[in-house]
Write a structure and sequence with these properties.
Blueprint (H helix, E strand, L loop, with lengths): L2 H8 L8 H8 L8 H8 L13 H9 L16 H11 L4 H14 L1 E2 L10 E2 L1 H26 L2
Antiparallel strand pairs: 1-2
Helix pairs in contact: 2-5, 4-5, 5-6, 5-7, 6-7
Length: 153
């Protein structure tokens, strides 16, 4: 699965409802800084975990894909749990029950932090990110690559 395949598969999913992803993020499951959060701030895109902003569609299409070589493989080294969770939810490859269980497991794995700046998310997500990525990556690849195979006939 390369970056172009990912972009092609998800491009038209901007308005696909993703209530489980949104609830995950609104619980404080959002990257604190760097990566797409820093990019959003640099481009005056609202960052607010309580509103699940920026959207994961924006994260993928406008941030990641816009800056990535379309011919390179989508890397397993990407560790952003909220992105993988959105990729999983809108792909249709996971059941609601699977996603709810995964959400609970990811939240349980996070370290909670008390912050003076309440605009920052209250969770350290590194452990949860790996749980989400490891659970979702292969099945996301399968569904994205299946579209390429089906469209080649």
């Amino acid at each position: 699965m390369n970056n172009q395949q990912v972009q092609n598969f998800y491009y038209d999913k901007k308005d696909t409802p993703c209530p489980i992803t949104e609830s995950l993020i609104k619980l404080g499951y959002q990257q604190e800084r760097e990566g797409y959060i820093a990019y959003a701030k640099e481009h005056s895109i609202e960052v607010n975990y309580l509103e699940a902003k920026p959207t994961q569609w924006w994260h993928l299409i406008k941030c990641y894909c816009a800056q990535s070589d379309p011919h390179k493989p989508f890397p397993y080294s990407v560790k952003c749990g909220e992105l993988y969770f959105w990729l999983a939810e809108v792909s249709g490859a996971f059941s609601k029950d699977e996603l709810l269980t995964l959400k609970d497991q990811a939240i349980a794995a996070c370290d909670r932090v008390i912050r003076k700046n309440h605009s920052l998310p209250p969770l350290k997500t590194a452990k949860g990110n790996l749980i989400i990525r490891d659970y979702c990556f292969d099945r996301i690849c399968e569904v994205v690559e299946r579209v390429k195979i089906e469209n080649s006939y």
